[in-house]
Amino acid sequence: MAYGHGAGPTRRSLAFGAGALYAWAHAPRFAQATTGRDPRLLVVILRGALDGLSAVAPIGDPAYRGLRESIALEAGGANPALPLDGFFYLHPAMRETARLFRERKLSVVHAVATPYRDRSHFDGQDVLESGTPRPGASRTGWLNRLAAHLPAGRALGRGEGQAGNPGAGGLAIGASTPLILRGPAPVLAWYPSDLPAATATLFDRMEQIYAHTDPKLAQALDRAIETDRMASEAGIGANLNTRTQPHVQAARSIATGAARFLVRPDGPRVAALSFDGFDTHAHTGGASGRLADLLQALDAALQAFEVELAPVWRDTAIVVTTEFGRAARLNGTLGTDHGNGTIALLAGGAIAGGRMITDWPGLRENQLYERRDLMPTLDLRAVLKGVAMDLLGASDAALSRDVFPGTEHLPPVRGLIV
């Protein structure tokens, strides 16, 4: 592994209201025993394929400007990119992200990708979330399997807290469970509603009915009530209605809600959150424009995580990733088509930050994948394995066999966690 150098958007395209959080109210006892931490792991998926060459621009590469033409970022001028190491520059919309990098609470992984190479959103997200080498290979997600295959922990929510007992159960903010969290670990759903709040007596009557007619539904209702209680105590409610909010405030609100669940002593410890809208085929924009708006929203979300997770920030790792990158060349509609290599961001107090982690392949035509995409030189699964091992104490054997099956040949990237 080489470490490198020390038209306006529509409401639909800025679909941050489609964010979803899923988590388990378990703190693995082994993690505290082996690392002395009470860790939080949050995976943020940017759906639509983030343009990594615009988010973290290799301005120092001599081929960069020729490929990017009118959307190329500049190190100087009226709205300059933010320097990371003199070769790579962060998009100017991401000032809080740049601050985290300077404070060594964020690192950038560049020229990274899953094993998938065929540029379909559906299949790319399947591989990203399943942790398998090809689409359709698993009906469960790697984050769920990670939780399920860890040694027995203690439940931090309501419940007996015995091995195999979910306690308060899983937690979901969103309308459905994505593949990354499908599997044996339990998942609950919670999402803000415009409907009037139900009364406690209604819940009591429903519990009594279900207890005699459908025990499984009664158990699900009990968990839902517990989730609603946690949300109410955390102050998460009507202000999280993202359908009527501008995209930056929507992203900040979703991140705030997620963090308030995670920071609770009886709250979840492992979570996944998704933001939509990164399929920038047309009118991407350079220092300003459509992608800049999306990145500004992501920047606001990272800041909200830092603020709301302050009591547990030192034990928190956030992984920001996407299904694949964009083509290296600007297309005819001033956007970028589906590609391969991209970036991942690692943020949090537990991250060994301030680093560009990359084996940079270069941007000359003969250095591009199929002469069109940034060449992936690092497998995202190696990064995820390294985080899981050093933050959670997961074993390499379990990660290679069960969480990311078939990766015995793929060593984890170590040293990502302080």
Low-confidence stretches: 1-15, 25-30, 153-170
What Rg do the Cα atoms give?
Answer: 21 Å
Oligomer: single chain
Largest sheet: 9 strands, mixed
Counted by DSSP, the helix tally is 12
CATH architecture: 3-Layer(aba) Sandwich
What is the total domain count? Answer: 1
Structural class: alpha/beta
Strand content: 5-15%
Q: What is the fold-level CATH name, i.e. the topology? A: Alkaline Phosphatase, subunit A
In helices, the fraction of residues equals 25-40%
The residue-averaged pLDDT reads 83
The ordered H/E elements are EEHEHEHEEHEHHEEHHHEHEEEEHH
Q: Tell me the distance between the termini.
A: 18 Å
CATH class: Alpha Beta
Number of strands: 14
Shape descriptor: globular
Blueprint of the fold:
Blueprint: E1 21-24, E2 26-27, H1 29-35, E3 40-46, H2 52-55, E4 56-57, H3 64-68, E5 82-83, E6 89-90, H4 95-102, E7 106-113, H5 121-130, H6 142-149, E8 154-155, E9 170-173, H7 200-213, H8 215-233, H9 247-262, E10 270-275, H10 290-308, E11 316-322, E12 342-347, E13 356-357, E14 378-379, H11 380-392, H12 396-403
Parallel strand pairs: 3-10, 3-11, 7-13, 7-14
Antiparallel strand pairs: 1-9, 1-10, 2-8, 4-6, 5-6, 7-12, 11-12
Helix pairs in contact: 6-12, 7-8, 9-10
InterPro entries: Alkaline_phosphatase_core_sf, DUF1501
Protein name: DUF1501 domain-containing protein
Organism: Methylobacterium tardum
